[in-house]
TrEMBL record, chain A:
Keywords: Cell membrane, Membrane, Transmembrane, Transmembrane helix, Transport
Protein name as annotated: Iron ABC transporter permease
Family: Belongs to the binding-protein-dependent transport system permease family. FecCD subfamily.
Chain segments annotated as transmembrane: 29-52, 78-98, 110-132, 144-163, 175-197, 217-239, 265-293, 305-325, 332-353
Location in the cell: Cell membrane
Organism: Roseinatronobacter alkalisoli
Automatic annotation (TrEMBL), chain B:
UniProt xrefs under Pfam families: ABC_tran
Species in which this protein is naturally found: Roseinatronobacter alkalisoli
Record carries keyword Translocase: yes
Name listed for the protein in its UniProt record: Heme ABC transporter ATP-binding protein
InterPro entries tied to this protein: AAA+_ATPase, ABC_transporter-like_ATP-bd, ABC_transporter-like_CS, P-loop_NTPase
PANTHER family membership: HEMIN IMPORT ATP-BINDING PROTEIN HMUV
Keywords for the protein's UniProt record, in alphabetical order: ATP-binding, Nucleotide-binding, Translocase, Transport
Entry keyword Cell membrane: no
Function: Part of the ABC transporter complex HmuTUV involved in hemin import. Responsible for energy coupling to the transport system.
Domain ABC transporter: 2-240
Superkingdom of source: Bacteria
Gene Ontology MF terms in the entry: ATP binding
Length: 361, 262
């Protein structure tokens, strides 16, 4: 067999043992196809009985769409699809970033109270937002609730990191316990706010607290999307730093990583992604812990690949969960948080069973 | 060269280092020795910026405090005493983390982790999970990562530096010799090496310069025969030690005089 000169050069580079970059790239390509497929499927599924092939057929033949078809497709399903993609990606990426920052696969914004902190921020904005000076209200506009959720998430991440990290090492036990305390505190404050809320606010709160994409609209999406997009853009910047941090803060700094700045950016990213996601869709659990864990099993923990892959898998899985939520008891629908909990809870337990050692660290 | 002047370190209100100074030349292997608690590791960690300290540290003529982390990483790599790793990285992936700055841009960059592993005697270990290695193997894998970071000992006439905190502590005698030889080769090629060591005989065999520490201060600094004297060592370690010479090579070796301890 004739050896081609270019294959001679390329094959050794692919055969380096322990280098999982190729596998990671293949996984990402497969995930991209998966997200695309689920997106198309999601546009075609719903209680209204508008089917995508019909609509596409009409569009191809130049026939006008009915008002009903246009509303269902462009004002209900499309914003819901985009919200689902962004929320899923944000939850999974903030989980992966937080786990990298805390150097622990159990750190998840939902589990350690960051989601609760973000929720408290959102509830504060809904109930007490009216007390803000008009100028501040006009300035923040529709972004008020996502911004408040972001600050709530930021404050709780910061407190959590301060409490559980000493000399660059994070204690898992302290982190989980501090997360319980933070979550309880945020829950109690949220409860007090619910008491003083008026009827309209109570309705907003209930609807929001269900943890659902059902309320997705262009207005909500445009309010929260900028923060999520910013966080998703910041995430890849963190990849090299999170890889270095796996070796500890001192080692990371000797590798040339500006550790303090990167830690601050990571905390802002987690708060932004979690806060904005919570603001649009309420509490959706387990995406942030299950997605990065499955990906580490499949392609390794290198954050340069893990973060984009988590965005893709998170987006795809959340869309799938949303479709299940819409279909199982159609025409009514389940809150998506129930679906992710039913699917994610057992996976989380399985992770704990497989690696009981990580809790003792 | 490395010029650390008047380093004071206080931990919890207690003075650990008092006015310690250390000079090390590129092209030479400088070893810091001393009994437990004498401040060897503290001095190294102060020099590498891991501990708050007073005094000044200049590397290649620049104050290290004024150099951003990324620029410093280009010509200085540090091996810490204890290593930790979160997440299941392979050995290859851990070593590749040492590819930073200009080295990462080299045409042969993809092959360098493998070559670094060969240099520390871990050829063929790239595909294993780091956490599954033994303690000594993990230590050598970390060494490969650190070595990769300063792969060429001299770049554009500027020496690069290796700071090693007890690089052979967890190793068997064969790998001790291999690692010390690697460190010496790095120095022979023009780079600077500063290592904290416990083993006096290995130190005598490989060091060009020795700094002997006691109670947070430098007791003696200089060539092997200047520092390794019966008086210096017996005083520092609080036991009777005699410096002899190897029959053939004439290198110094140190023998504890058990009878004289009491």
């Amino acid at each position: 067999m004739v050896a081609l000169p270019f294959t001679n050069r390329r094959i050794p580079a692919m055969a380096v043992a322990g280098d999982r970059a190729l596998r990671a790239r293949a996984t990402m390509a497969a995930l991209a196809v998966f997200v695309l497929a689920v997106s198309v499927l999601s546009l075609g599924v719903g209680a209204a009985g508008v089917s995508l092939p019909d609509v596409l057929g009409k569009m191809a033949s130049g026939e006008a769409l009915s008002l009903r078809e246009r509303v269902v497709l462009f004002d209900i399903r499309l914003p819901r699809l985009l919200t689902g993609l962004l929320v899923g990606a944000s939850l999974a990426v903030s989980g992966a970033v937080m786990q990298g920052l805390f150097r622990n696969p159990l750190a998840d914004p939902g589990i350690v109270g960051v989601g609760a902190g973000a929720g408290l921020g959102a509830v504060l904005a809904i109930v007490l937002g009216g007390l803000l000076p008009p100028a501040a209200l006009a300035f923040t506009g529709m972004h008020l609730i996502p911004l408040a959720a972001f600050f709530g998430g930021w404050a709780s991440t910061l407190i959590l990191y301060r409490v559980s990290t000493r000399r660059g090492r994070t204690s898992v036990a302290t982190m989980l316990l501090a997360g319980i305390a933070l979550g309880a505190l945020a829950g109690a404050l949220t409860g007090i706010l619910v008491y003083i809320a008026d009827d309209q606010q109570l309705r907003d709160l209930t609807f929001w607290g269900l943890g659902s994409l059902a309320g997705a609209s262009w207005a909500k999406l445009t309010a929260a999307a900028p923060i999520m997009v910013l966080a998703l853009i910041a995430a890849p910047v963190l990849a090299r730093a999170l890889n270095g941090l796996a070796l500890g803060e001192a080692a990371a700094s000797h590798m040339g990583i500006p550790v303090q700045r990167m830690k601050n950016l990571a905390i802002l990213t987690v708060a932004g992604a979690t806060g904005a996601a919570v603001a649009v869709s309420g509490g959706i659990g387990f995406i942030g812990i299950v997605v990065p864990h499955l990906l580490r099993l499949a392609m390794g923990p290198d954050h340069r690949y893990l973060l984009p892959a988590a965005a893709l898998l998170g987006a795809g899985l959340l869309l799938m969960a949303d479709m299940i939520a819409r279909l199982v008891i159609a025409p009514a629908e389940l809150p998506i948080g129930i679906v992710t909990a039913v699917l994610g809870g057992p996976v989380f337990l399985w992770i704990l069973l497989r690696r009981r050692g990580i809790v003792d660290m | 060269m490395l010029d650390a002047k008047d380093i004071d370190v206080e931990l919890g209100g207690k003075a650990i280092l008092r006015g310690a100074s250390l000079q090390a030349q590129a092209g030479r292997l400088t070893v810091i020795v001393g009994p437990n608690g004498s401040g060897k590791t503290t001095l190294l960690r102060a020099i590498t910026g891991d501990l708050p300290h007073s005094g000044s540290v200049c590397l290649n003529g620049q104050n290290t405090r004024r150099i951003p982390a990324w620029a410093l990483a280009e010509y200085r790599a540090v091996l810490p005493q204890a290593s930790q790793l979160a997440f299941p990285f392979t050995v290859h992936e851990v070593v590749r983390l040492g590819l930073v700055g200009a080295t990462a841009l080299r045409a042969d960059a993809t092959h360098l982790p493998t070559r670094a592993l060969e240099r520390v005697g871990l050829a063929g270990y790239g595909g294993r999970y780091f956490q599954e290695l033994s303690g000594g193997e993990q230590a050598r894998a970390q060494l490969a990562r650190v070595l990769l970071q300063v792969w060429q000992p001299v770049v554009a006439g500027v020496p690069r530096w290796l700071f090693l905190d007890e690089p052979v502590a967890a190793l068997d005698i064969g790998h001790q010799l291999q690692v010390m030889t690697m460190a010496r080769d790095f120095a022979r090629a023009g780079g600077g090496v500063v290592a904290v060591m416990h083993d006096l005989n290995l130190t005598a065999m490989f060091a060009d310069d020795i700094t002997l520490m006691l109670d947070g201060q430098v007791l003696a600094h200089g060539g092997v025969r200047d520092v390794m004297t019966d008086t210096n060592l017996s005083h520092a370690y609080g036991c009777a030690l005699r410096v002899s010479s190897l029959p053939r090579a004439g290198e110094a070796f140190i023998l504890p005089q058990a009878a004289e301890i009491a």
